[in-house]
Each structure stands twice: as C-alpha cells, then as structure tokens.
C-alpha cells in the first residue's frame, strides 16, 4: 500500500509498504478515507522527537471504513465508518477507568524507553515515535487500530468526512484545552497560537462560556481566521508587544485564562541524552519568544494556564517563582480523546459547530511530502491539510 513515511529531518516520502495485519485479537483494520497532518507531526518532521526510525509510517488523525476485525472485537463490525483517536488506550487500566486515556498504562509497548526520558510513560500514540509505542500511523491506505473497542467512534449519520475527521485529535484537543482553563462567565481567555489547535481552543472557549477571547499569532491568515471564524480580538506578536497589549486590553490585570496552543515550536526544546539537536535547542540560545514564559508573565494573579501545546523533554528557564507567587494553576497533557468523542460528535450533529472551517488544503496522499513542507513553512495560506489515500 501507499503510505507517508519518515526518513529523517524534513524528509517525508510516499513509499510502498506492507499492508497492516491483525496482530492482536482486539485489533481492527480500517481502509483510510481521510487523514490529516497535525502540528504534532511537525515535531517529527523537524526532528525534535526522539525515537523515530527510517520508514516509520506517519499520521494520527485518520478515519475510514472497518474492513477486518480481530476475534475479540465486540463493538465494531466490518463496514462501520469510524474516526480513530490518536491516543491508543487499553480501556481497562486504572487510568483508562478514570478517563485519563492519554495516560494509559498498557498501550505503550516501549514504556521503558519513555520512562528513561520522562520518568514515566504516557499512552502509546498512533503514528508517533517508538518512545510512544511505535504504532504505524494513518497517513496510509490502511491502518491497524489497536484496542479497537476503546477508541474508534462509529459515525452513523451521513456527515461528510471533513466534518467529523477532527474528532480524532484537534477538536477534542482544543476543547480539553478550554476545559482545562476553568473558564467562567466573566473571563477573558488569551490563546497563544492560531494554528488548528488554537482555532478549536477559541471555538471551545466560547462554547464553555468565555466573555472575551484574545488570540495571538503572527501569520495574517491565521489571525484573520481567529477574527472571522473565532470572533476573537487578535494580537500580532511581531508587530505588538504581547504583554503591553494584553495589559492594556484587561485593565492591567492580565487575562484570566491563558492557553498555550503553540508548544515546543516557539522556543528551544531538550531531551536529555537522546537527540543532540534537541539538547542544543534546550540551551535556549535563540531569542524566539517563549510562549510558556510569556503566558505565565501575562496571566492574571490566581488565573489558569492551560497547555495543549506539546513540549518534549526538559523545557527549562520557566519562572516557577511567578507561578507560585501569583498562585497560578497549570493544566496540561495529551488529550484524553475518548472522553470527548460522543459529546463533541453531538455538537457537530446539532449544527453547533462545523469543524471543516479550518481546512485549507484537500489533496491526495501522493501530495503529502509537499504538503508537509507547505504546512511547516506556513506557506500558501495553509492552515489544515486533509489527504485522501
Ligand atoms: P501549528 O504549527 O499549525 O500552529 C502553531 C501556531 O503557533 C502557528 O500558527 C505559529 O505561527 C504560532 N506561534 C509560534 N510562535 C508563537 C508565539 N511566540 N506566540 C503566538 N503564536 C505563536 O500547530 P497546531 O496543529 O495548531 O498544534 C499546536 C500545538 O498543539 C503543537 O505543539 C501540537 O503538537 C500540539 N498538539 C497537542 C495535542 C495534545 O494532545 N495536547 C494534540 C494535537 C496537537
Ligand atoms: Zn494531531
């Protein structure tokens, strides 16, 4: 089959690879009908994520039709149309039973590698590094879905792929980011990053009752989408001083809730003992704005900082003294996608939101390598790419 594969920093190719097969009786195989590129894929593309191997199949935002199920699969049948969460979760460990799906204890077969770097292991993730399970991803014609009874949600309605695909990741991620921000009715919410995750965080902040949303980025079409679609006020972080503007906009108190939907891209990242490049980055020698530092500095006393943005390894130089003395609450994590599938599908079916607003590019899988470059460089007004195998 055809699949997008990783061959090193900024080297993604379309290769012929073997089709996936059922390995465990709880697996299912789907024929992929739509699959997206995520900002998280860019961490792999840019070589920030340790544990990638040449030929790894990328992709963690897929949907498609079930074509085979393992003997223990009970909830899915051949022919079902499903969206597959990027978090691989067993459904029966302490964490899954407590709906902390992205912290599943059993779904990362390489837990010891993750523990070496992070001191613990989160769940396995589809199409990510071997440190997080080494599961082949969904930017391919076919995908093996592990624990098929736990993740995938069947779509019974005739909503098009474009409207339900983002249940796999970025809609739940934006929603959990807003939920983690503890939004109350009178709150001003500041969102750093107007990529796909930021856009869904903005939408979700309104859904959860925000009084005001301020979005921060430097890319004109993304700021424009935040204004037009997200009804947000915006700050261009290269043209304006973010701190000064936020203080002026909030009577000098600072936003009540801050969401970092940027992550590691905006500043150095470091992974101890793994990637030399990442270690160099960790020294923070560059002067790119550090979103976490900025959000901590801007957030009002007693406010909440929600961090859906992905950080890898050590992210040093945080003003933790400010966090403590300003009594900030910080909440973060990979999204517990399974928790949000049903309620968010309902919001789409009810017409409360049409997630397809974020799509700017619909192409074939064969165009994948070019699209990685375009999306990474934020060229051609690219905000979200959906591919059809
Ligand atoms: P993206 O790369 O498309 O968007 C990031 C945006 O941040 C860009 O528009 C960029 O211009 C902007 N940005 C960069 N520096 C900035 C700064 N200093 N201030 C304000 N904005 C800045 O990525 P995305 O798909 O929107 O994903 C965003 C983050 O969310 C990534 O780190 C991704 O890995 C992460 N993510 C997390 C989860 C999760 O489960 N927690 C799931 C999906 C994605
Ligand atoms: Zn993603």
From TrEMBL:
Classification via CDD domains: FDH_like_1
GO molecular function, one term: zinc ion binding
Keyword list, A-Z: Metal-binding, Oxidoreductase, Zinc
Names of the cofactor(s): Zn(2+)
Domain Alcohol dehydrogenase-like C-terminal: 196-265
Organism superkingdom: Archaea
GO terms of biological process kind: small molecule metabolic process
Record family assignment: Belongs to the zinc-containing alcohol dehydrogenase family.
The protein's name: Threonine dehydrogenase
Organism annotation: Natrinema salaciae
């Amino acid at each position: 089959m055809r699949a997008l594969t990783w061959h090193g920093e900024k080297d993604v190719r379309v290769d012929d690879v073997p089709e996936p097969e059922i390995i465990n009786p709880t697996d299912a195989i789907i024929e992929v009908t739509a699959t997206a590129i995520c900002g998280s894929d860019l961490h792999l593309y840019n070589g920030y994520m340790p544990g990638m191997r040449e030929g790894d199949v990328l992709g963690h935002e897929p949907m498609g039709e079930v074509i085979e199920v393992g003997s223990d699969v009970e909830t899915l049948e051949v022919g079902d149309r499903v969206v597959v969460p990027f978090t691989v979760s067993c459904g029966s460990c302490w964490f899954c039973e407590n709906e902390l799906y992205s912290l599943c204890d059993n779904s990362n077969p390489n837990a010891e590698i993750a523990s070496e770097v992070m001191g613990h292991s989160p769940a396995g993730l589809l199409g990510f590094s071997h440190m997080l399970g080494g599961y082949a991803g969904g930017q391919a014609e076919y995908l093996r879905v592990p624990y098929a009874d736990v993740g995938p949600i069947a779509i019974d309605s005739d909503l098009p792929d474009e409207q339900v695909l983002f249940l796999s990741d970025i809609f739940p991620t934006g929603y959990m980011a807003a939920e983690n921000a503890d939004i109350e009715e009178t709150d001003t919410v500041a969102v750093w990053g107007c990529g796909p995750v930021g856009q869904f965080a903005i939408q979700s902040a309104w859904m959860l009752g925000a009084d005001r949303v301020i979005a921060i980025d430097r890319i004109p079409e993304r700021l424009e989408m935040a204004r037009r679609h997200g009804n947000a006020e915006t700050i261009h972080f290269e043209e304006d001083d973010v701190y000064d503007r936020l203080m002026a906009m909030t009577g000098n108190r600072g936003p009540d809730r801050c969401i970092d939907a940027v992550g590691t891209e905006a500043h150095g990242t470091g992974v101890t003992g793994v990637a030399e490049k990442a270690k160099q980055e960790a020294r923070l020698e560059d002067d790119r704005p550090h979103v976490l530092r900025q959000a901590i500095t801007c957030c009002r006393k007693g406010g909440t900082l929600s961090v859906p943005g992905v950080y890898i390894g050590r992210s040093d130089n945080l003003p933790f003294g400010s966090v403590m003395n300003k009594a900030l609450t910080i909440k973060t994590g990979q999204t517990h996608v399974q928790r949000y599938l049903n309620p968010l599908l309902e919001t789409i079916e009810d017409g409360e939101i049409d997630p397809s607003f974020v799509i700017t590019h619909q192409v074939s899988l064969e165009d994948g390598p070019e699209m990685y470059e375009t999306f990474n460089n934020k060229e051609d007004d690219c905000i979200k790419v959906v591919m059809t195998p």
